[in-house]
Design a protein that fits this description.
The protein is mainly α. The protein has one domain: Arc Repressor Mutant, subunit A, CATH 1.10.10.10. Helices cover 68% and strands 3% of the residues. Helix 4 packs across helix 5. The longest helix is centred in the first third of the chain and has 29 residues. The chain starts with 13 loop residues before the first helix and ends with a helix.
């Protein structure tokens, strides 16, 4: 077998693809609760218009996603009222922000420029396993020591 060919044990199986699909389905929720939390940290309230501007999407898109997240007990809102995080939503925002920071710190520690690290961390944070995240955090400490 040539060195360029992967061993059968190295080829991702269905469980890997299932995890990727699951990660993709939670990305929007994580992004939205983080955005609501960020907006609330700078303003007294968060409205659909704020999220539409934040993400550069339509009011209709935000309304649809906010409705879904209300159903998942991550957000609370009523017609013509601000959007609030539930306790579950706040926990998810904090966890997501922590993952993002660990990935971004690692990328900076290996020499990636700040703008690229911030951009890349936004995608990676949703797909990194807790085991890998712990290794990244440990290696970042070692690289920065």
């Amino acid at each position: 077998m040539s060195t360029s060919r992967k061993k059968l044990s190295q080829i991702p199986g269905p469980q890997s693809h299932e995890r990727t699909r699951r990660d993709h389905s939670s990305e929007k929720a994580e992004d939205y609760v983080e955005a609501v939390d960020d907006i609330l940290s700078h303003k007294d309230e968060c409205r659909v218009v704020d999220l539409a501007a934040f993400f550069g999407v339509s009011h209709v898109t935000v309304t649809r996603i906010v409705s879904r997240l209300v159903g998942e007990d991550l957000l609370q809102t009523e017609p013509y009222r601000p959007i609030r995080l539930t306790a579950k939503g706040k926990r998810l925002a904090v966890e997501s922000r922590k993952r993002h920071q660990i990935v971004q710190d690692f990328l900076l520690a290996i020499g990636v420029d700040a703008a690229t690290a911030a951009h890349d961390a936004e995608g990676i944070e949703h797909h990194v396993s807790p085991k890998t995240l712990a290794k990244l955090a440990k290696l970042t400490k070692e690289l920065n020591a």
